[in-house]
Structure formats: structure tokens, C-alpha cells
Amino acid sequence: PAGTGGYLNAIEAGLSQLITGTAVSAAGGLVSLKLLSGQILTATVGQDGKWSLAVPPAALATLQEGANTLNLVVTDVVGNVASATTSVTTIVNNLPVVNTLTNLFGDNNVLNLLEAQAGQTIGGTLNAVAGSVVTVTLGAKAYTTTVQAGGGWNVKLSATDLLALGNGNVSLGVKVGDPAGNVASNSASIT
């Protein structure tokens, strides 16, 4: 199906996407896809049975946010008909967002010795679909977790890692990527 791994993200939705397949017994026939708008897209099946159907951005815009079933119909040169389905999950409107990172480490973005010795858990709520991957970077370390239903997430930063930061400013970054490949990030300076 179109997109990345059965998903269609915001960038891909702005570009024509190809749906490809093989229908060996339908060489020379037609493959058709009826869209929600009623528009029908067609492609000719090659002599090797391979076909490729280009779906333009205007047609992709008719897909609903979330799971979509695409019904394909293959018609061979003598009129025999067969059908197949494939699915694509569209995430083009509910894009991930990482808001400004504030209130970290004692609510002041300053990591003191006692906080470092205790280890810390950071997290919050993101505008991202469940299953999105969150990567937190702090200094040279990276931590990953997944977004839960409702957008919640958290990661535990060990005392060992926090004490290894030493004195001075360091960047803490949060990046989230949803299953469709949409990405958002933000960072804050930690003292």
C-alpha cells in the first residue's frame, strides 16, 4: 500500500503514491480502485502480471484519518473479475507536537546534586497517537519509550547518568515519531 509500512503521513499525502501488485492471470487487463469520492483510478496489468497504480494527492485527500480499506478490482482481458483489499492508516491531521519543555527537575530546569543523586523521571502528555516512539536525549545518552493511550509517556533517568553530566549547561531533547513517520521535537537547556 501507499506510504510507509501501511501508513500514510503528512508529507507522503502531499505526493503521488504508488500501489503496486501482481496479477499473473490478468496480463493485459485492468486494475481499478474506487475512492470514497467516487473517483475510479485504473492501471493496466503488464504482460508479466505486474501493475502500478498512481494515487495523486487530491485522491489521497479523500482518505479518512485512521484506518482505510482500499478495494481493488482486477479485470482480465476476457472480463473475469477478482477483487483484493489492502489497508492504509492515514495520520495527516493528528500530527505529533512536543510543547515547550518547562518545569523539569524541581520545576526550574536546574538539576541540583540531590535531584541527580535520586534519579529523575520525566514525562508528560504529548499530542501523538498511542504507540508513537519518544526519544529523550540528555548529554550523550538517549532514552526511548512509547506513547500510551491518551498521550502519556515517561522515562527514568538514572542517578548514574545524571551525576555523569557534571556542571554547566546541557541540552535535553524530546523527539516523538508516530507510526506513519511524522516527527516533532523540542529541547531545553538544563543547568
Structure description:
The chain has 191 residues and is mostly beta strands. The chain is 13% helix and 45% strand. The strands form 4 sheets. The protein has a 5-stranded mixed β-sheet. A 4-stranded antiparallel β-sheet has the order 10-9-12-13, with no helix packed on it. It has a two-stranded antiparallel ribbon with strand order 2-5. Strand 9 (133-138) and strand 10 (141-146) form a beta hairpin.
Pick out its properties.
191 residues; mainly beta; 4-stranded antiparallel sheet; 5 helices; 13 strands
Overall outline: elongated
Radius of gyration: 24 Å
Detail the poorly predicted runs: none
The topology string of helices and strands comes to EHEEEEHEEHHEEEEHEE
Distance between the termini: 47 Å
Oligomer: single chain
Tell me the number of strands. 13
